[in-house]
Amino acid sequence: MATEARKLRVGLFVIVAILIGLAAAIWLGASRYLADESQAVTYFSESVQGLDRGAAVKYRGVAAGRVERIDIAPDGDLIEVKMSIDNRYADLLFKDPTLRAQLQLSGITGLRYVEIDRRSGDELENSPTLSFEPSAPLIPSTPSQFKAIQEALEDIYQRVMSVDLAGISSDIRTTLQAADQLLRDERVQKVLSNMGNITDSASRVTLNLEKATEGVRLQPVVSDLQQATNQAKGLMIDLREGQAGRDLRSALREVDGLARTGQTFVLDLQGLVERLNLTIDNLQQLTEALRQQPSNLLFSNPPPPRPTPKR
What does pTM read for this prediction? Predict the structure, then answer.
């Protein structure tokens, strides 16, 4: 009897556990369907490895929904991620044009979740272009940090591969060989020896100059030179801003006026000389005419009458 009673208790325990499990599953499923949520969708142009159904959707670190479905987009290139967003955050997420969805790594497990945050600058322009109509309200995406690192590494790799390493190595080898031949040349050794001799000669000249100028006092000369420089500066300032400068400029203006007056006088004198030369020429012509025909002085025609001025 004890064995049968124990079996009955165990059977009742198993049945109750199964009923509780079924009730929990039904409640969780019903709560998911009855939850106050809205649908949203985003599209990624990269691998979503590590992102599974039920993964968290966070807004600046706050849980705001979950991933509902992951599929290939209608264009066959992008990855469509459909999300269920809590209605408490739906209005905010759907109306802010600066929000972008991005894949983030959850710890060191390799699992990923969708992080929604505000972006600016180039990150707003990195969203993939859609050639179809999204199936739900769209939250644009931006490449993840892993994709940016991957692209940067690929760019570095392409730049390194584009470098002609073989040619550079060949050029370096040729340069080193030429340098080795040059250093082995006897003429180079002679040049180096001559440079050593020149250095020794320069050292001796410097030593002789130091000995020759050992007793010379240069400080008074430097002081006199500085005093002369200061006086020259003072004179220049006085000529530019002082009374002497103003007097000099006034005198220059008077000299300029006198020069202009003399120039005018010379021009007038030149005109007078020209008129005198013309008069002398006329007198010479008259004298020549009278010498040849003296009768013209008495019997020449009278000059024409002067015109009467009009009143």
Answer: 0.44
DSSP 8-state class, residue 218? -
Structure tokens, 161: 């591969």
Where in the chain are the domains?
Answer: 33-154, 167-194
Q: List pLDDT tens digits, range 152-178.
A: 777 787 777 777 767 777 777 777 777
Q: Phi-psi region for residue 304, left (φ > 0), alpha (ψ -120 to 50) or beta?
A: beta
Query: DSSP characters for 128-193?
Result: PPPSS--SS-B--B---HHHHHHHHHHHHHHHHHHS-HHHHHHHHHHHHHHHHHHHH-HHHHHHHH
Phi, psi of 50 (to 5 degrees): 100, -10
The dihedrals phi and psi of 143, each to the nearest 5 degrees, come to -60, 145
Structure tokens at 168: 């550079």
CA-to-CA distance for 227 and 235, rounded, in angstroms?
12
Residues in the chain: 311
Alpha helices by DSSP H, listed for the chain, are 2-34, 87-95, 145-162, 165-184, 186-212, 219-241, 243-292, 296-299
Dump pLDDT digits (tens) for 40-60.
999 999 989 889 999 999 999
Q: Which of 113, 174, 119 is nearest to 142 (CA)?
A: 119
- Say if residue 88's pLDDT is above 80: yes
In whole angstroms, give the CA distance from residue 183 to residue 97. Answer: 69
Give, in order, the Cα–Cα distances in Å from 138 to each of 112, 154, 296. 20, 30, 125
Helix (H, G, I), strand (E, B) or coil at 86: strand
CA distance 144 to 82: 18
Greatest distance between any 2 Cα atoms in the chain: 195
- Return d(Cα 151, Cα 158) in angstroms, integer: 10
Burial of residue 81 (CB within 10 Å: 0-12, 13-18, 19+) is buried
Distance (Å, whole) CA 149 – CA 145: 6
